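Escalated from tier 1: zinc ion holo job.
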Amino acid sequence: MKKKAIEMIPYLKLKKTSRKKDVRYIGVTAVKKVAEEKHFFLEIYKNTKNASTVPVARLVCTQKDFGTYFPERNEWTRQKCETDSYKGGLIWNEKTGERTTSDKLEKQNILYDEKDLERMRDFFKPSRSIWNEGRWWEYVSKHQQSVVSNARMATEKRKNERRRQALKEREQNTLKLPEQELLDMADERYFYHKHFLIYKKKGCFAKIACTKCGGVTDARWKGGESYESQFQRRTQEPVAGKSGTCPLCGAVGEYKCQGKVKSSYAKSIYIFLGQKYKETGMVLRYIQISKEWQIEEICENGGPELFNALEKLSGVEIARGYFEEGKPLQIDFHKHNPYDGKDFWDDCNLYGMNNIKISDAPVLYQTYTEMQGTIFQYSGLKEYVAAVGYVNPISYLERYQQTPQIEILTKLGLVDVVKELVRCRYGIVVSQYANRPDEFLGINKDKAKLLISRKGNIDILNVCKMEKRLEQHWTIDQIEALAEIGASQGNIAQVLELMTIQKVLNLISKYAGCEYGTNCSNAISRLKHVATTYFDYLSMRKQRGYDLRNTVYQRPKDLSVAHKKMTDEINKEQQDKRMQEAAEKYPMIRKNYRSLRNRYFYEDDRFTIRPARSAEEIIQEGRTLHHCVGGDSYLKSHNEKKSIILVMRYKDQQEIPYITVEIQDERIIQWYGAQDKKPDIKDNQKWLDTYIVRLKCKKDGMFEDAAESLLASAAG
Ligand SMILES: [Zn+2]
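Tier 2 regenerated the structure:
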């Protein structure tokens, strides 16, 4: 939009207001040339006398663009003119919040005269039409909509085009892969020129197929006595798994018995090869190389016969990581199009399950020669690979670009620290821009040596960091012992208020009954366990409000007994709390007890059954019998008399929970004894059935003796 030029054009003005009282806004239009381009003007005026010279809004459209100017605010916007098509919101409307019907909207917003509508048709109609010209503003809003989406599509297209170009450019600048060299190298170094001699014995003869030369021979492995036998081809006896020599080409191969071999057998390895890319960049290429050994058989009368054997080396490049100075890492992936059967390179990975994974693998030696003169000349990749073996150099170099200190860390031998960083675990870094390793990692300066001697071990590092944060100075032995027990900083800080670090360590060693630094896995796990128990014990003591300066509390004779006692104390406290809360929350259980007892109480010479007296009793019942009846849903239900919890007990052991019954009117919902089991199920079920019949009779107002006779007849 040529905003300045448009602002220079005087307003069209409203010549006459409308007398219809519904009309709120009137649109006036014009087509004018601005900078040699046709512009459509729509000015919206309020339908009042004093508002006819300056419009509320001026909407301007060209064929490919639009903009709206609000004179009052002196502001341009790219908002579309229909702001809310459901509520009939138009950009010039004052917000009233009322819902306007379509009909009303047409009456409130009109064009000045027929010529204005004609101008609109002329300007917009060639490309779009609207259904109802009463809603004339739709010409404008549809046009605006298409301008916006065309612009979006154009941007998207430009972006895709740029991506495609960049991908092509990368492909063109990537050096050729030394394919044959790679295959030879892989055969030599990873497949050890492995060949197979597949054999089938037949008496003194063996049929042998060689994967190297593909030949099949019959050779005698057992000496014969006949005259002819001395002219027959000889070989040693084939034994599966042993190596032998092919009678035809002399290659050494491993014997495999035919029939035990699948028709093909393959092995794959992965490697990284780094090459110079453009001026100072690098491309790391992730390649899979496979060797396949095959045998071919034909069917003869006596079953499958060896016919041919062969081996095949093949390679496929899976991914490329491109590094350039000042640019983020770009990884391209090799994909296969199943529709046209072609392979192609793409600049993004596949989604979900088919995601192409780049794993740790050896890095080919040529990579380091190629690194000379690139941004990675001093990256320390070579030293890192030497220390770790299989790595993902793409991750390493990406991290190196972000954190160049990795070079020093690697060269100092802090391998485990670098491994963490390569895995993107940056939590261990304290000062990201520091150059000295002790500052970078946040440890005391004198501990750098120790850390280096332990190859950057993360447990040691964590203790060293703790030492610095707690402003301590520990000996090497202390640090190693602390790394062994793996205590957290919170625990150590707490215990340091009571005793020195050496005393803690001695105490733990004494409780565990073993020494530090034995390298014995039993001792290590015992020390760890004891340390956890001890720190746990201390914090429970503290939580219960004991004075830990008292050495009796600090150093209990028997740690596990003391720990158990603390756990019990805390559990009991929590249980009491639960009981109290339940009693407050479900008070009706206690209040209703009398009336419920009248209804449900029964006893004979063996059992007593009655409702639970209180919420506490229900909880206790659930706890003793280890079933779920103490839960809130039962308590709530009983509290509201929706279902009632009854306790059934031996008459002579009335205080000991035995069976819990949930009942609703005269119907048992469920009954259970300990551990959700039904003890003595036959007898108890019968007893409860009888009890229910009694309840029903009682409810129906039957006399006791009538009930008895009914029961007797039911039993008979
Ligand atoms: Zn051979």
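The longest strand covers residues 303-323.
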